[in-house]
């Protein structure tokens, strides 16, 4: 319970005071009326006695009366009707609001810190008014009139008669029985005669004389001459007098308007429950006839006073105040207290005299009559719900009367014993109402006894309350009792009991009382030793609820707000929502719309667990409140809306036009668009491509400040820089909305709010920037500067996340800032036939994007800091060229190696010329624009549909035609693959609006599967300092298997015999090409034809086809395999160093058409094919290592390596085979001919090479190596390799006729040709003596002998061919093997190495015939 | 009938009630009962710190409901609210219900993926509570 201004003792004493009636003559009334006061009102401020009074109790003990207060009221004061009482109370409560701005005290309980108003003045006001308005009842006498003042003015013609009249009047009122209302304590009421003298007006002598007369007549103790009005009212308010009346009158005058605000509150609180309560509750109303004429005059006089709150006591000086005070004192001490004392004695005497007899008599009769009532009592008794009613003279009531008198004069001991006795009597009589009253007062007097001889009997109170409430059905008395009891319990720190008591008193019949009591109970909970915070909050809510039912909106709001402190943020969402909702409602009705909006906002923002209907109710309420607020306020800035949730961080910004889709055959470049998901790897890939192309465009060096162009900014991109947007090109902002509710939301007129600072970039920097503009006031007002797109309608379903794309089109250069999203929020109309338009409210939500968290320096690591994010602050730059790229006849599926011709169209859609068009790709081997040298006959795409992509010539199959081509012509330099290609533009650029179509050849990738091919088109403005721009395209090609080509090269043992060939030194090779049709799809591919096989190499060329003539059929049906054999020779132009970089293309056509392989596109793709070995290797490091090793092998550089290199070189070929094929495909009953080419690179003799890359086991698990790789051991040439240094060949006649009979010795000349295959000098030893020792050779019967020198030593220069003429000698006819000479070879430089036996040639058989 | 679990800091971990239409009232009731729980715990804690009875018994009766409480050693509170007209539930039944609830709650806590302080979304816990509710009604 809240703290009160008074202590409990004071409070109880002040609640029970002796009451005095006043009966005034009309003249006297007039005198006081000059001060705007009636006589009782005049006395009221002085009713508390400052000095102690004394009286003697029946036992002659002196009782000290301290701080006594008396209550003076007009005799005809009407008890208020219950309805009026209610009104009075509710006015009192609503008129007493918590002081604003006062620091509330903070209660800390557990983890709660609560701001709670410590005092509850409205409760005290209520209590005071309630107690004052208590009607006098029959069972107790505390507020019955003890005395009556008869007031007569001294100006009266006959004051004595007037007194007489008044005295009679009083007597009539008390004893005639006509009036139920003013209740009198004792039959012989004390009459006190007061002569009122107006000093400024009356005759003082006369007054004195009348007073003398009075004294004689009524005795000095009962008369008083009161002189007031020392000054005339006209004196004016020059002298400021204290106005002690104001505080009393404010409270006492129920009808007077207290303050306009309160009045309006009071008027609105006509609660429906109160209407039916106007009927009386046992207080029969006074007859409407006025008691006397005084009454009417008072009323007449009272009206103006009440209507105009004027200064009271204008005619009174301080002396007058003192006089009044003295009068009261005199009255009390000389009149009232002796009167009371006398009465107590009388009553005591009566009781004592009766006690002995009646007690025993009563009890005896009761026993005898079995508990029946005493007959004399039962005559008068009236049964009511509370038991019986005693007649006023009943002896039980005399005890009670005495007790009340004692209580009033603060003689609590005696009062207690009397009450106790009375209680016993009443209980034995079953007079419950009386008993309860006695119990209540007994408890009170026990509490008030100083020194506390006995503990406070709390159970008395409980019984009393229960009896009042349940038996007597008298809530008013019960409430009074509870109020006292709670106060007493509070003072004894029994908060929980007090709370329980108060909570018990809440009921349905009075909301105001329930509310106040619940609030007090809540305060009790929080004041407990261990504060019960949650109980406090709960009862506060209950109290707030009752307050709102009672129409006390302010108090209700306050209660809810205090409870909110407990529930806030603790996870009790339902309760929190309920409180917030109520706070919102109450705030709105109290015209605090800001608070209302804040409260409603809170419900909507949090993830609400409410059901959909509840949510929609919340939403409607919010919209309604919001709308009424926005209509009333003239604020320019639109307020923030809570719904739907805006995910600022996911906002994406796109610069550029919306992507145009394919137009007919034309297929636009995919570029970048908001629909594409962000992919980090892809972004990285594009950035690398762009870096490459920029590097190429800037002649090999990437500028330092290079940043990849970003068209679509999101949370993944680097947003540290201000993005660039181009004038007249749209900026699309994609915002993400989420609807957290279970009801759909409708947004209307969605648009962006921006701020724009115009700036002219063509002028030198440092100019004054223009004034910032904004479209805040009118969305489309500044459409000439920046067009703002408005989405008229946008609906978000329940719990849906949806994106909205909003477009801005800048028309001027400058700096733009996108600030927030503007929209109207409304509910979605239910289709239930109502035509009412849903309410829409206008508002905004700011786009606040936080940059990524910084984490570089130590400071940033320890604190949470975020970097800037300039996604939404683009700089609008002057116009830039804008390229659009279309692909025509671009296929989606290709066979591996298939060549297709497509067209590409470049359109410059801007007003600025563009130049420097380049393209970079991840798959440069996939496409070519043709080489610059080839004649670009711009045939239209349709015309070239059925033509071959190749350039052909009609030639019959014959010896290969050769052509020398430098790779530089095809834009290839060195070994690296050209990822960037310049696109040949006519005139070097594209003017505004110009379009250009150029052919594009595509070759299906070598591996089957789906390939993702990225094109990055780069272009720049003709102006120097302008930035470049890029356009992206991503194509998907599905490659299916076509042919597999395997090729092997072998040394040919035979040396060319024909003239031309011999000059070349005998370098020739056999090339076997296996072609297999591995196409698996039945989709139309019928057969493949090998059209031509071409070679391309710097050293070798295909020479002739040496297939058997019958086997020339080059068709391959499904899964067929064909074999082609070719002879290759070394190129003639070997020695010239300048030609070394040039490639020799040799074409061997199998049909009647020769495809010129040295031109576009065949050669293009050949040069773009990339190194197969590199392509096959997975990791970069592996490939790199491989590359270096290869490099170390090829040149004959180092001394040690030289040997190996030279030896290796011997078996190395560098021959690339290009197999050109045609495929016959049936598609849609139409035969198509597809063309293609496959490349095979032969590197080593005897090693098979394949066109289809072998599927390697994916090296997913590469062991981590912590030690550097062991350097590969110095590769010594293997024996096998060394044995191939020298090629030997024996020339001899196959059969030789010799007449053995004539000549027994047959001599046959044999030529041994030695050919050095290596590039080094070789020492050769030929040993003829060597016999075959193998067992097989033993079986050869015939032997022969070499004649002449048996050992030769030769030195062969690189590629030198030497012949040795040998002679063999035979003794008889037969077949001989001449292949016995052993050849040993040794590198000339490598002295340490021993000679190696060279591979012997095949058995050389000679037939010697004898003729 | 309603079952509520609140953790050390009195945040609700789990709330379940049938019938659902008057859920707000349950919330308020249970929230208020936590005060009584705290009071009881502190009172008992002083007397016998080591052998504390986890079951707190009837916290307080209202007009329509009876509120029972239970506190684990780690100060996690269980509150069961039953209709006061339901006479079939004696103290012993309530006690066993709390035991069951406690063991099930322990299982939830043992789940390594459960983040202490989150609302309980375990299906097994849910089913045990449902079974209890069906049984008691």
Automatic annotation (TrEMBL), chain A:
UniProt source species: Electrophorus electricus (Electric eel)
One of the record's GO cellular component terms: TRAPPIII protein complex
List the protein's name: Trafficking protein particle complex 8
State the encoding gene. TRAPPC8
**Which residue ranges does the record assign to the TPPC8 second Ig-like domain?**
896-1031
InterPro entries per the UniProt record, alphabetical: Ig_TPPC8_1st, Ig_TPPC8_2nd, Ig_TPPC8_3rd, Ig_TPPC8_C, TPR-like_helical_dom_sf, TRAPP_III_complex_Trs85
Signal peptide range in chain numbering: none
Matching entries from Pfam families are given as:
Ig_TPPC8_1st (PF24545), Ig_TPPC8_2nd (PF24544), Ig_TPPC8_3rd (PF24546), Ig_TPPC8_C (PF24542), TRAPPC-Trs85 (PF12739)
Disordered: region residues: 1174-1198
Q: What residues does the TPPC8 third Ig-like domain cover?
A: 1035-1240
Would you say which domain of life the source belongs to?
Eukaryota
| Domain TPPC8 first Ig-like, chain residue ranges per copy | 675-895
Domain TPPC8 C-terminal Ig-like, by residue range, is 1285-1386
From TrEMBL, chain B:
Keywords of the record, alphabetical order, are: ER-Golgi transport, Transport
Q: Name one GO cellular component term.
A: perinuclear region of cytoplasm
Q: Which GO terms describe its biological process?
A: endoplasmic reticulum to Golgi vesicle-mediated transport
Question: Which Pfam family is an annotated match for this chain, by its short name?
Answer: Sedlin_N
Q: Which domain of life is it from?
A: Eukaryota
InterPro entries associated with the record:
Longin-like_dom_sf, Sedlin, TRAPPC2L
Q: What is this protein called?
A: Trafficking protein particle complex subunit 2-like protein
- Give the family this protein belongs to, as stated in its UniProt record: Belongs to the TRAPP small subunits family. Sedlin subfamily.
Q: Where in the cell is it found?
A: Cytoplasm, Perinuclear region
Q: What is its main location?
A: cytoplasm
């Amino acid at each position: 319970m809240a703290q009160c201004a008074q202590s409990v003792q004071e409070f109880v004493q002040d609640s029970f005071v002796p009451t005095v009636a006043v009966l005034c003559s009309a003249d006297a009334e007039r005198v006081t009326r000059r001060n705007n006061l009636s006589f009782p009102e005049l006395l009221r401020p002085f009713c508390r006695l400052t000095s102690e009074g004394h009286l003697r109790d029946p036992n002659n003990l002196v009782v000290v009366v301290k701080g006594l207060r008396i209550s003076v009221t007009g005799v005809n004061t009407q008890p208020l009707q219950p309805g009026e009482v209610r009104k009075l109370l509710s006015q009192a409560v609503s008129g007493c609001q918590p002081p604003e701005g006062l620091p509330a005290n903070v209660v800390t309980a557990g983890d709660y810190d609560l701001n709670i108003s410590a005092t509850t003045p409205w409760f005290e006001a209520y209590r005071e008014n309630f107690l004052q308005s208590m009607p006098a009842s029959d069972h107790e006498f505390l507020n019955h009139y003890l005395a009556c003042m008869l007031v007569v003015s001294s100006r009266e013609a006959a004051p004595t008669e007037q007194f007489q009249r008044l005295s009679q009047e009083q007597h009539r009122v008390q004893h005639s029985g006509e009036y139920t209302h003013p209740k009198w304590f004792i039959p012989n009421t004390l009459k006190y005669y007061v002569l009122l003298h107006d000093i400024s007006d009356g005759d003082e002598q006369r007054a004195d004389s009348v007073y003398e007369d009075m004294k004689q007549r009524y005795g000095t103790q009962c008369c008083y001459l009161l002189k007031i009005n020392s000054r005339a009212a006209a004196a004016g308010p020059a002298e400021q007098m204290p106005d002690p009346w104001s505080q009393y009158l404010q409270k006492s005058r129920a009808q007077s308007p207290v303050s306009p605000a309160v009045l309006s509150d009071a008027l609105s609180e006509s609660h429906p429950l109160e209407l039916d309560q106007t009927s009386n509750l046992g207080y029969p109303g006074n007859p409407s006839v006025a008691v006397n004429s005084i009454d009417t005059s008072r009323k007449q006089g009272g009206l103006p006073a009440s209507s105009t709150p004027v200064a009271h006591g204008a005619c009174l000086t301080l002396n007058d105040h003192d006089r009044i005070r003295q009068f009261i004192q005199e009255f009390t001490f000389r009149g009232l207290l002796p009167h009371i004392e006398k009465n107590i004695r009388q009553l005591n005497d009566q009781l004592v005299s009766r006690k002995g007899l009646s007690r025993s008599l009563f009890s005896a009769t009761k026993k005898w009559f079995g508990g029946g009532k005493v007959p004399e009592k039962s005559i008068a008794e009236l049964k009511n719900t509370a038991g019986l009613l005693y007649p006023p003279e009943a002896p039980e009531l005399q005890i009670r009367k005495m007790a009340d008198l004692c209580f009033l004069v603060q003689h609590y001991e005696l009062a207690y014993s009397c009450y106790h006795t009375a209680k016993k009597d009443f209980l034995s009589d079953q007079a419950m109402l009386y008993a309860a009253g006695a119990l209540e007062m007994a408890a009170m007097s026990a509490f008030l006894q100083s020194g506390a001889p006995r503990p406070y009997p709390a159970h008395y109170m409980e019984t009393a309350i229960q009896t009042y409430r349940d038996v007597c059905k008298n809530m008013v008395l019960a409430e009074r009792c509870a109020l006292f009891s709670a106060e007493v319990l509070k003072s004894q720190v029994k908060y929980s009991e007090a709370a329980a008591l108060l909570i018990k008193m809440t009921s349905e019949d009075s909301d105001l009382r329930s509310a106040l009591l619940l609030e007090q109970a809540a305060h009790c909970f929080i004041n407990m030793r261990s504060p019960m915070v949650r109980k406090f909050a709960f009862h506060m809510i209950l109290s707030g609820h009752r307050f709102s039912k009672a129409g006390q909106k302010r108090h209700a709001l306050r209660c809810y707000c205090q409870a909110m402190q407990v529930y806030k943020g603790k996870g009790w969402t339902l309760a929190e929502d309920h409180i917030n909702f109520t706070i919102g409602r109450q705030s709105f009705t109290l015209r605090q719309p800001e608070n209302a909006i804040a409260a409603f906002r809170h419900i909507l923002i949090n993830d609400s667990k409410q059901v959909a209907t509840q949510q929609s109710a919340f939403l409607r309420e919010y919209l309604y409140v919001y709308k009424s607020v926005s209509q009333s306020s003239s604020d320019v800035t639109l307020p923030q809306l809570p719904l739907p949730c805006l995910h600022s961080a996911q906002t994406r910004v796109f610069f550029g036009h919306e992507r145009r889709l394919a137009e007919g055959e034309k297929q636009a470049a995919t570029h970048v668009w908001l629909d594409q998901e962000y992919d980090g790897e892809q972004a990285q890939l594009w950035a690398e491509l762009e870096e490459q192309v920029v590097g190429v465009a800037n002649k090999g060096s990437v500028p330092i400040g290079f940043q990849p162009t970003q068209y679509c900014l999101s949370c993944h991109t680097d947003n540290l820089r201000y993005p660039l947007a181009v004038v007249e090109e749209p900026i699309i902002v994609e915002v993400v909305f989420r609807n957290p509710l279970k009801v759909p939301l409708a947004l209307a007129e969605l648009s962006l709010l921006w701020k724009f600072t115009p700036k002219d970039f063509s002028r030198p920097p440092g100019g004054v920037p223009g004034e910032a503009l904004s479209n805040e006031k009118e969305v489309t007002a500044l459409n000439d500067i920046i067009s703002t797109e408005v989405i008229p309608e946008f609906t978000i379903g329940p719990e849906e996340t949806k994106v909205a794309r909003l477009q801005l089109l800048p028309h001027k250069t400058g700096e733009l800032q996108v600030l927030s999203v503007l929209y109207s929020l409304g509910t979605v109309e239910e289709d239930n036939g109502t035509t009412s338009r849903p309410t829409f409210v206008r508002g905004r939500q700011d786009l606040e994007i936080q940059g990524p968290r910084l984490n570089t320096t130590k400071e940033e690591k320890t604190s949470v800091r975020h970097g800037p994010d300039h996604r939404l602050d683009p700089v609008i730059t002057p116009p830039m060229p804008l390229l659009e790229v279309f692909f025509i006849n671009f296929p989606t599926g290709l066979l591996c190696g298939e060549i297709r011709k497509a067209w590409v169209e470049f359109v410059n859609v801007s007003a600025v010329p563009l130049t420097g068009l380049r393209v970079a790709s991840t798959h440069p081997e996939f496409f070519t624009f043709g080489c610059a040298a080839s004649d670009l006959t711009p045939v239209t795409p349709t015309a070239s549909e059925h033509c071959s992509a190749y350039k052909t010539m009609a030639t019959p199959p014959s010896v290969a035609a050769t052509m020398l081509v430098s790779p530089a012509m095809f834009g290839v330099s060195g070994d690296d693959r050209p990822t960037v290609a310049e696109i040949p533009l006519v005139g070097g650029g594209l003017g505004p609006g110009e379009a250009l179509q150029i052919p594009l050849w595509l070759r299906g990738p070598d591996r089957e599967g789906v390939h993702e091919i990225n094109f990055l088109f780069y272009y720049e403005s003709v102006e120097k300092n302008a930035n470049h721009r890029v356009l992206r395209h991503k194509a998907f090609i599905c490659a299916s298997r076509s042919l597999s080509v395997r090729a092997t090269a072998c040394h040919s043992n035979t040396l060319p015999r024909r003239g031309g060939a011999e000059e070349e030194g005998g370098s020739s090779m056999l090339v076997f090409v296996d072609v297999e049709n591995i196409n698996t799809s039945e989709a139309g591919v019928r057969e493949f034809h090998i059209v031509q096989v071409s070679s391309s190499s710097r050293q070798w060329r295909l020479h002739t086809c040496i297939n058997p003539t019958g086997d020339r059929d080059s068709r391959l049906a499904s899964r067929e395999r064909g074999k082609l054999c070719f002879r290759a020779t070394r190129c003639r132009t070997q020695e010239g160093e300048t030609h070394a970089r040039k490639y020799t293309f040799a074409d061997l056509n199998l049909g009647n058409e020769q495809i010129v392989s040295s031109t576009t596109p065949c050669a293009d793709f050949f040069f773009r094919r990339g190194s197969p070995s590199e392509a096959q290797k997975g990791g970069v490091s592996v490939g790199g290592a491989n590359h270096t090793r290869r490099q170390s092998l090829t040149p004959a550089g180092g001394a040690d390596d030289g040997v190996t290199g030279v030896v290796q070189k011997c078996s190395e070929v560098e021959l690339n085979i290009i197999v050109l094929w045609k495929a016959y495909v049936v598609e849609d009953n139409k035969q198509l001919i597809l063309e293609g080419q496959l490349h095979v690179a032969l590197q080593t003799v005897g090693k098979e090479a394949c066109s289809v890359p072998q599927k390697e086991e994916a090296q997913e698990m590469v062991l981590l190596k912590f030690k550097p790789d062991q350097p590969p051991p110095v590769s010594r040439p293997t024996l096998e390799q060394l044995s191939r240094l020298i090629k030997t060949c024996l020339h001899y006649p196959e059969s030789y006729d010799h007449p053995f009979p004539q000549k027994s010795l047959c001599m046959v000349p044999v030529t041994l040709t030695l050919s050095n295959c290596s590039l080094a000098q070789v020492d050769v030893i030929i040993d003829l003596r060597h016999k075959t020792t193998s067992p097989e050779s033993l079986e050869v019967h015939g032997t022969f002998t070499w004649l002449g020198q048996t050992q030769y030593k030769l030195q062969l220069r690189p590629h030198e061919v030497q012949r040795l003429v040998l002679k063999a000698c035979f003794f008889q006819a037969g077949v001989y093997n001449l292949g016995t000479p052993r050849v040993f070879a040794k590198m000339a430089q490598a002295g340490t190495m021993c000679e190696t036996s060279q591979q012997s040639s095949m058995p050389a058989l000679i037939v010697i015939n004898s003729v | 009938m309603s079952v509520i679990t609140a953790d050390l800091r009195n945040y609700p971990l789990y709330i379940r009630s049938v019938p659902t239409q008057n859920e707000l009232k349950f919330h308020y009731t249970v929230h208020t009962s936590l005060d009584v729980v705290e009071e009881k715990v502190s009172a008992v804690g002083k007397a016998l710190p080591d052998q504390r009875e986890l079951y707190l018994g009837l916290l307080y009766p209202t007009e329509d409901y009876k509120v029972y409480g239970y506190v684990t050693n780690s100060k996690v509170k269980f509150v069961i609210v039953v209709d006061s007209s339901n006479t079939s539930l004696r103290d012993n039944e309530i006690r066993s219900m709390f035991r069951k609830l406690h063991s099930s709650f322990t299982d939830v806590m043992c789940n390594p993926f459960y983040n202490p302080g989150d609302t309980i979304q375990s299906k097994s816990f849910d089913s045990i509570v449902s079974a209890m509710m069906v049984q008691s009604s």
